[in-house]
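$ fold --in a.seq
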Amino acid sequence: MTVTIPLLSLRNVSRSFGTFKAVTDVSEDFGPEELNCIIGPNGAGKSTLLNMICGTLAVSSGSIHFGDESIGGMSGDKIARLGIARKFQVPSVFPSLSVVENFHVSASNALSANELDEILSTVNLSVDRDTTASELPHGKKQWLEIGMALSMQPKVLLLDEPTAGLSVDETRATSEFLRTLRGKVTVVVIEHDMAFVRDLKAHTMVLHHGKVIASGSFEDIENNDLVRDVYLGRR
């Protein structure tokens, strides 16, 4: 029997700020080249968890492994060099540079013409390759930053609310191109938009008050009574 070794593994990960526990004993495995979502109400600890994975925040207790390497106390720069790329909620691009120039600046190594074309096609920016980033509408700036993260050729791509501020059509297009990344890179997405999460068809973990209350396919999550209670505000 073939055993799939998790690319990213969290074991009893916790983070406290003084007496406040933002994340408590989170354990989860993210397999190679899978799509994953982390959902939960505001204040559930989603961004805090992502910050610990990418090294922006230190882990109070527990462990995070990337392959067989412990990264829980590692600097963000070193984690990025290992192959974990992060896109934050608010787009952060180089406004005076073109789309292509943004990709080249972000790339860990020189991008070939084919690699560049593939990223442009993936994030729906082929026709905007020479457009200055400042001239792009908000939705395409979001796509540009996802493309910049992909230009680092990561093994793990962390996305914090990639559909924030997007139209319905842009959100649908984002889901479509993220699904094309299955089998290419491990993607972990934080989201609030349930229609987007449903469309993504990803393994989904639910956080509430910093704890995992459910984990599984979106179909299982959607039919979970506790998850329904949390999102309806009954708990």
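$ fold --in b.seq
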Amino acid sequence: MHVSARPFALLAALIALASGCGGHRPAVAPAVDLAAGPRAAPPETEADGDVLVWGKQGDGRPTTYRVAGDGRVLGEEPGIVIATSRGELAWREREAEVKLGGCEDGAPPANLEPGTVTHVWLAPRDDQPRQVVVDPGDDGEGVGELSHRVELLGSVGPYLFVHEDVYVNACGAHGNTSATFKLWDAEAGKEIDLLRNLPNREALARRAEPLLDEGDMDPEEARQHEDLPDLVQILPVYGERGGLRVDAQFARADCYACSDGLWSGYTRSVIVPSEWTPERFAPWSTPPVAVVKFLQSRPGFALGGWSRR
């Protein structure tokens, strides 16, 4: 189940999954093919202008810095801002309450707490027009608890790595968490799929397999897995000087009690370096001098991404 921005689809599917327990294990999300063809960004030079760098220091909130070619900070603002050929776009989030139907027949209890969902969009600073990145809908029928979160794992130029997880208690033996991933192209204003293009996917899955076996609560069951783990997510990782690598997360179905909490309930997962840089990420694989000097001046800064018009 790969989640798109269609209203109601996410919550309805999760309620159906969470209604069961025990042997009913939700399948790991397959990728939906929405990919456009490779589109490399124009080459960049030090004379192309300022760079936007975002990230955070320690446990602080994300901050975006405008950095000159020589590494000087020209300005900063809270939050995440991405530079594109269409202008600068800010990452916006809004948490909304969802009225829940509850698990009882008839009217829900008066003291039933509402659920929460997170809406996400990209927009210029005047907030119009906007790109809707996550629209979870508001269907809480037959649900006793609901909590939906969105995390921006990182960005590569205009490409945003978006992780969602939803906890739902839909009146089964226990609640369940389901996770999804999407790669958002802020230039095109749409989701794209690169998971299926991972060239060494099978080899990486085989590398992930023994790592999953090591921490399995039931070694005997671990040996019985016949299928390779599924690729569920890719994420950018930046080194101390801003060099980029792409990691791949693999997951496989397991019992609810065996889940490690790193992906959905009923799964265990591991992250391994993919040794792959998609063609469309090439212009951002090597950081410019501005980014390198900025990072050198801020030890411990966790780089989330950088971009330039």
